[in-house]
Each structure stands twice: as structure tokens, then as C-alpha cells.
Amino acid sequence: MSSRFRGYLPVVVDVETGGFDWNRHALLEIAVMPIDLDDQGRYVLGEGASAHVVPAPGTDIDPKSLQITGIDLDHPFRFAKSESDALDHVFSAVRTAVRKHACQRAILVGHNAHFDLNFVNAAVARSEHKRNPFHPFSVFDTVTMAGLAYGQTVLARAVQAAGMEWNSDEAHSAVYDTERTAQLFCTIANGWGRHATPPANPQPPDLL
Fold first, then answer.
1. pLDDT band at residue 77 using 50, 70 and 90 as cut-offs
2. Which of 18, 87, 30 has the alpha carbon at shortest distance from 59?
């Protein structure tokens, strides 16, 4: 894996939030899913982690966002963690996967990936977290990948175009969306058929 993406490990991330402004709205849920390799060198889902998050002090929540996600902040079984503890929990799983594959660090994979990365980076800054395993600005975006592969950019339609099922009742859960995005990434990447291990003696292209 370390030779395929210039030393970076793809890790799928999905966040559920209290709105669209990462500088103002709360992080409410986060899930991560490292990409692994099977015995044939094909991309598969690794071992993920997730956490519900207590809204950080000073952050806002747009009630409309809760209608979309269905998150009940007062649910007795939500077992939400502080923002710092939630990051510790999911980042630990990411660092374990990075070490497993001898990679330098993780690179975030997401559907509209910069949305997720911006919320992660904002939470890292608020909590003054010192061990963020993700590249600070580079991402792999499955919107672009699915647009090229299937002509679809909406996650539900892209997943279905890739031959997988989509359950609308489970959508907007960070865990469900992360798993489906990870499956979408693996399906497209495996179908691409090109891994980044260069030939031993590469020849220059024939320009004539």
C-alpha cells in the first residue's frame, strides 16, 4: 500500500454536523474506515472506528441539520464523547492502520471530501489536538471518481451505479455513509486496474 499512493494511506471519513459552516457549526458524529488490501492486492475495507460527539463549547447547531441527520442529542444511548476524546478514538484507529501499511500518514477520502476535512481540521484546531494523522489539505474525492466512472455525483446514485444497494433510512449516519463511500472507492479503484508500483526499468514514451 505504501508504494501505491506515495506513502499515504487512504482513509474514508464521514462527519455529521450541526450545519455547513465548519468554523461555527458543531461536529456531532465522525466515522473513519481505513482502506486495506486483500491477498490478491485488491482494495477492501479495513477496520473502522466511530464516535458521537458532544457539541464543543461555542459551536452552533442549526435545527434543520438535525432534521436531516435524525440525530437526537439527548438520546440516552448516544454515549457521546468530548471533541478531543472523539478525535483520540478515531485517530488511534487511523494511526494503527498507517503503521500496519508502513505509510507516512493518512489521506482523507470522502464524498465532497473537503467538507469532511474542513470539519476535522476545525475540530483539531479547537481541541488543540497534536496528533492529527491526516494530510492537512490533500484529499481523494469520490464525487470526482464516481463522476468519471459512472457519470454520477450524488452518493446514493453513485453507489447504485456501482451495483450496490442504498438504504435511504440509514443514510446520514456517519458509519453507514463511511462504509458505502469506502465500498464505492474500492470498487472504482479496483476497476481502474492500475496500481502505482512502477516497472523496474521504465521506458520513456515514444513521442514520434
1. confident
2. 18
